[in-house]
Amino acid sequence: MADCIDCNAIIPYCTVMGSITIRQLDDALKHRLRLRAARHGRSMEDEARTILRNAAGEETTPAARQPAAAPERQSPRPIEITDHGKRVLLIIGGGIAAYKSLDLIRRLKQRGVAVRCVLTGAARQFITTLSAGALSGERVFTDLFDADTEFDVGHIRLARETDLILVAPATADLMAKMATGAADDLASAILLATERPVLIAPAMNPRMWSHAATRRNLATLLEDGVIVVGPNEGEMAEPGEAGLGRMAEPLEIIEAALTFLSAHSGKLLAGKSMLVTSGPTREPIDPVRYIANRSSGKQGHAIAAAAAEAGAEVTLVCGPVALPDPPGVNTIKVETAEEMLAAVNRSLPVDVGVFAAAVADWRVERAGANKMKKQAGRPPRLALTENPDILATVAHRMRGRPRLVIGFAAETERIAEHAKAKLARKGSDWIVANDVSQSTGVMGGDSNTVHLITRDGVESWPPQSKRDVARALVRRIAEALAETGG
Ligand code: C5P
Question: What is 273-366+380-483's CATH superfamily?
């Protein structure tokens, strides 16, 4: 018998796992296996499998007798793998395995995946919305006919605003609904409405799993492109019941989900071009004085960065800012509104134009070539003239207009109302409106609370970092482009 790295006592038992289960190990062994599994971030079953694999390897290849690092190297996917910025909608069905889905939420979050949960009515017999909400850090959705949900998010948005829908546990009932296209509750309505990939982790009694009806449903789901992880063989919650039907372990489900997500992390805006204006403009009065707007450029730069991250070819036309150029972005630096308009015109055509710059409304008609001398009691009279409206100019172009033109509105009161009027006045498709009154700290700060005004209505987004606003906007842009023909 091979020596195990640090629990040789477990090996003799594990090598006969075919006939005994972890449940039958004595308490001391179970405890040691649990500690070891926790240390490696695996389930107890996975840990036992790893020990067996290592032991088998050692017996066939003596050179493989290695120090304690070996199990990690053999793990199919390193535990530290992360998938930042990805979103999973986790539908929790009503089965005893639902408690494992709480662990799933925690582990997905640890890997940087945002998790939104939907609990079926049956799931709430096993776990509470409170625990799912506390672990996910997001509101938990339960009812199809909940007015709040429908007006606020709605099953269509839940179905759409995710990179992957994960159903765990997928009960026999949920699988049947999915296979037949039933949509009589929130979970099944989402599953019918979605165009996103769906991964299911079935969990049920072995007889239900092997029933002809479930076999038919499974075949239909596979044909529909649903991905399936598990079920595993093992003991059931019911005493004396064993067989194929245990839900895959959270780490197995995570591995399947992350493998899928990374294989399909096709960049959202690959092949698309985007123009972003950012920062203030500076309108000279004379060589040392100027008129400008307060703008750090943080939001505009974050949008350019997020679009580049999503694979777009991005041109950023920016006024004077104290920010580094975003990586992977073609940055053109300008000073005045007229220079900005010229650079914008040179950068067209593009698929999307985002006009986040705080362009000065006026410039001095005749800026002095020399510094104006101060004369006591006789301040100069500056004749101002209007600057071109870059957003409106581009939005009203007959030729070379971007497919999607997005303006910004910095408001201090009646934000949505003013922004709607601006949408019409400027001829843009969307307006991103934010409250820049002093108390909000938006100006120059790192967070933002915005409202997205489209021709369909107003969406109020929660307060979040400017980077997250940028990423959310990029996702919406990708969705809009896909809806209007890719
Ligand atoms: O009219 P207002 O300045 O409030 O409009 C804001 C929006 O219009 C922003 O998207 C801003 O970038 C754009 N804008 C522009 N050229 C101007 C003034 C504003 O592109 N001269």
Answer: CoaB-like (3.40.50.10300)
Cα distances (angstroms) measured from residue 204 to each of 92, 97, 182, 271 = 13, 9, 20, 44
427-448 pLDDT tens trace: 999 999 988 776 666 677 788 8
The string of DSSP letters for 256-314 reads HHHHHHHHT---TTTT-EEEEEESB-EEESSSS-EEE-----HHHHHHHHHHHHTT-EE
* Mutation choice for ligand 1 from 317, 362, 389, CB with most ligand atoms inside 8 A: 389
CATH architecture of 87-263: 3-Layer(aba) Sandwich (3.40)
With the most atoms of ligand 1 within 8 angstroms of its CB, the residue from 316, 391, 426 to mutate is 391
| In the predicted structure, residue 148 carries a pLDDT above the cut 80 | no
Determine the Cα–Cα distance for residues 237 and 248; give it in Å rounded to an integer. Answer: 14
From CA 3, how far away is CA 11, in angstroms rounded?
Answer: 8
Residue 293 appears among annotated catalytic residues: yes
Active-site position among 293, 370, 387, 434: 293
Q: Is the pLDDT of residue 80 over 60?
A: no
Q: C-alpha angle with apex 38: 34 to 39, nearest 5 degrees?
A: 120
Q: Ligand 1 centroid vs 424 CA: distance in angstroms?
A: 13
Query: C-alpha angle with apex 477: 150 to 87, nearest 5 degrees?
Result: 60
- Separation of 377 CA from ligand 1 center, angstroms? 35
Nearest CA to ligand 1 atom 4: 409
Tokens of 348: 């067209």
Cα(205) to centroid(ligand 1), Å: 62
The residue whose C-alpha atom lies closest to atom 2 belonging to ligand 1 is 409
Q: Which atom of ligand 1 is nearest to the CA of 426?
A: 8
Query: pLDDT digits over 184-240, tens only?
Result: 999 999 999 998 889 999 999 999 999 999 999 999 999 888 999 999 988 777 777
Query: What is the CB < 6 Å shell around ligand 1?
Result: 277, 337, 355-357, 359, 387, 389-391, 407-409
Q: Write out pLDDT tens, residues 29-61.
A: 776 776 666 555 566 777 787 787 777 664 433
Give residue 436's pLDDT: 79
- Give the closest residue (by CA) to ligand 1 atom 21: 389
Atom of ligand 1 nearest to the CA of 428: 10
- Segments making up each domain of the chain, as ranges: 10-74, 87-263, 273-366+380-483
